[in-house]
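Hey, quick one: can you model this chain's 3D structure?
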Amino acid sequence: MIVEEEEQETLGHHALLELYSCTPSQLNDSGFLERLLLNVASQLKCTVLGQRFHTFEPVGVSGIVLLAESHLSIHTWPEHGYAAVDLFTCGDPQHLSSMPALFQNKLQSSHHDFQIIKRGQPNKASDVGFERVRDRRLADSIELDKPGLNRKKTWLSDGWSENILWSARIKKVIAEEHTCYQDVLILDTHQLGRVLVLDGNIQCSEADEKSYHEMMVHTLMCRAGASNTPKKVLVIGGGDGGCARELLRYPYVTKVDMVDIDRELVELCEKHLPKIFRRPDNQSSLRDDKRFNLIIDDGAEYLKTCEDYYDAIFVDATDPIGPGASLYSHEFYRSTKSRLNPNGALAVQGGSTWYFRDTFRQVYQNLQALFPVVHPLECFSAVYPGGVWSIQIATMGDDPRDVNDKLSRLHDDLDWYSSERHQAAFILPPHAQELLY
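Sure thing. Here's the predicted structure for all 437 residues.
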């Protein structure tokens, strides 16, 4: 990766190249490395003044070529297949972009990190502006070729599509575990707080999770067809606890069953995401509310065997891969309907109308085949692909777009949900409407 700032007067350019998985024998051959550096200097139009190379015991080489423009040096660790190269030049920098290829081809490196830093700006004030700070942070090696953590574990990238990566800078890796069902990462980021990542895909962040959880829960619970009579509610998935937290805001909710297949995931969320996995009063964990009941089971299997009926069911599923795949089938939605009371309703996460159109359409068509009324809504997300996500509401007959003002007024302290937002969220853009037919 090359990171450059916009053109401005500068005294020199410092190119830093790290090469990985190189041929070890070449990294310990000082004669080969000397010839390589002299050839690179020639290719980069530099003037050689002299050179000095030294081989260490038992392995390793350090070498430097003195240039009229400054210097070119290399330091190798053959036992690790690693080499570090730096070139400082006060000459013409236009050829520097070819530097990685000149080394990578000869050393047979599998991958590399590369950055160019401007050194010395005589006409610039002594204070460092925002743009300089931003570029220096980016130079801390975002790897633009793949999702996941970079090698230094300072950036996380999430693949939004084949051609788009979204990245966030990391303060600290809080937890990195492989459960029986999935890879789990909990990271502390600079701008989004703590984030939960499952199998490389971001599931939620402390900064924006309320936009999703509030809109999923309260649009269903505050619809005109709902009532404030005692309710039993089921959450399938939702191991981060956000949906359960919002449901416990309702004093007439008597029981919240949360069914998640991955006990280790839930325990990690309770321990490391306390701002999400908590009671609405912020005082303690969800488990301290007697109405909250955690059930470790496969959601699809649970619906086949449970004997309870629910007034509302929420399917807070991951993407339709891995352990979440079974929560998107026609058979699964049929099972959810069979466990709803006569005036019950269902809310499911419905994917992106831009990046995951097939998922959005699949969810809608499966629900429409079973329920009299189905309406998708859109909510904001800072971490889901595209920044706009869908939730689909299915009812036994009432229109979820209509608001029970009395119920909605119970929650005037929320960050994202309101009665006005309730109605507006169901207004889909034309491109999304087209997916419904």
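One thing worth noting: The chain is about 25% helix and 35% strand.
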